[in-house]
């Protein structure tokens, strides 16, 4: 898939959790066989913007004062399985309360829970009263500090980063601007100063971690890119300067476009509805501008804003706005792996992790085929199989 071409009658040999060989050569003697017929085999997909322990069903606005981290973790168990069975074998989880994403990651690694490989961020880091703080409640209700990601000034943001890393974060999420699903008055205002953003990125770098920046507004996007973040997530209001700077710095854009169709504005409280209606046309235009301007674009969905397991609908949303199917797929494979800084996944090659999926049909001709995943293997273990022939597992001489 790195070359963007289909290889007919391919044979992939898996040994342990790795791919041993790829090609048209015969099956090793005595090896069990999974014959997927005329399905298309792809690398396991990667979603670099999820919230596995969250969703916005029911009364999600009051959930932070009604639930404990245990509730969030249990929700994550369900969502992790849905995500894996949809073909996503790796996710970057960008913001979770009470270190629930870290706990979920550990449970998956220990085999206690079925789910994708995770790159957890723990608490997102944001300003008091900003998008990553719990706004809208009375004073004294769920007031948070640096340990929970709410930090102001260079000293506090340094402590916030260090505390997330101490307790298991493997990427840092920062809210550089205001947002849609929070109760600040604006949608895109810059919320961290340039100095604070630089301090966050530099401290994360000292710890060997990259930074993902939630950013809608242009000034906050520019400040985050200059600070050295690895990705701009959402990137709703990009101007020519932002596109140029992101291209020059190699900063990834992680737009979330399916949610524009999936989230009904009328289901939101009036202040949030107004912000969403303001931002939707700007997000689509910014995506086109980034695409035309040569910005690197990775695949992220903001799953939680729409149901987990529907992640693959993001592919069609991107193609409708002008991206080619192969570029959309690369966004969730090779480009996503590059953004994560990993070289053990994202392509079907010898030595890579045996994270594989298969779909009926040709996703290069119809990208919606990726919404109908029929086979999922993670680390050499089949977790979903609706495609293989009746003689699955039969050794062949």
Q: What does this entry look like structurally?
A:
- Helix content is 31%, strand content 17%.
- With 397 residues, the chain is of the alpha/beta class.
- Strand 5, helix 1 and strand 6 form a beta-alpha-beta unit.
- The C terminus is likely disordered.
Task: Write the SSE topology.
Elements: E1 11-15, E2 18-23, E3 31-32, E4 40-43, E5 45-50, H1 69-85, E6 88-93, H2 100-109, E7 117-120, H3 153-166, E8 172-175, H4 194-206, E9 211-215, H5 218-227, E10 231-234, H6 240-249, E11 252-254, H7 258-262, H8 270-292, H9 313-320, H10 325-331, H11 334-340, E12 356-359, E13 373-378, E14 381-385, E15 395-396
Parallel strand pairs: 5-6, 6-7, 8-9, 9-10, 10-11
Antiparallel strand pairs: 1-2, 3-15, 4-12, 12-13, 13-14
Helix pairs in contact: 1-2, 3-4, 4-5, 5-6
């Amino acid at each position: 898939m790195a070359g963007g071409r289909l290889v007919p009658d391919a044979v992939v040999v898996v040994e342990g959790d790795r791919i041993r060989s790829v090609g048209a050569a015969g099956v090793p003697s005595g090896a069990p066989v999974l014959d997927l017929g005329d399905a298309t085999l792809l690398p396991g997909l990667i979603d670099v913007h999820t919230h596995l322990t969250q969703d916005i069903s029911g009364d999600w606005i009051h959930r932070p004062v009604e639930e404990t981290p245990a509730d969030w973790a249990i929700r994550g168990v369900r969502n992790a399985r849905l995500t894996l069975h949809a073909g996503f074998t790796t996710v970057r989880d960008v913001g979770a309360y009470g270190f629930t994403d870290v706990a979920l990651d550990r449970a998956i690694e220990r085999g206690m829970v079925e789910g994708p490989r995770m790159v957890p961020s723990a608490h997102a880091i944001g300003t008091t009263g900003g998008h990553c703080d719990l706004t809208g409640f009375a004073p004294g209700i769920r007031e948070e500090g640096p340990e929970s990601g709410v930090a102001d000034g260079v000293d506090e943001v340094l402590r916030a980063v260090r505390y997330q890393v101490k307790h298991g974060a493997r990427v840092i999420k920062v809210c550089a601007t205001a947002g849609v699903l929070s109760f600040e008055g604006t949608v895109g205002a810059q919320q961290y100063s340039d100095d604070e953003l630089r301090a966050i990125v530099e401290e994360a770098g000292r710890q060997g971690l990259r930074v993902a920046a939630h950013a809608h507004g242009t000034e906050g996007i520019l400040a985050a890119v200059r600070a050295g973040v690895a990705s701009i997530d959402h990137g709703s209001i990009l101007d020519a300067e932002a596109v140029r700077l992101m291209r020059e710095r190699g900063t990834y854009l992680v737009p979330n476009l399916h949610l524009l169709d999936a989230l009904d504005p009328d289901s939101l409280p009036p202040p949030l509805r107004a912000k969403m209606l303001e931002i939707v046309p700007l997000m689509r235009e910014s995506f086109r501008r980034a695409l035309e301007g040569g910005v690197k674009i990775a695949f992220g969905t903001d799953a939680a804003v729409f149901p987990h397991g529907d992640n693959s609908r993001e592919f069609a949303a991107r193609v409708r706005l002008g991206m080619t199917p192969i570029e959309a797929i690369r966004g969730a494979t090779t480009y996503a792996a590059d953004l994560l800084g990993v070289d053990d996944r994202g392509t079907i090659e010898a030595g890579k992790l045996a994270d594989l999926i298969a779909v009926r049909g040709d996703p290069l001709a119809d990208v919606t085929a990726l919404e109908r995943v029929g086979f999922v293997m993670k680390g050499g273990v089949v977790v979903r199989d609706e495609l293989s022939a009746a003689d699955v597992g039969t050794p062949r001489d």
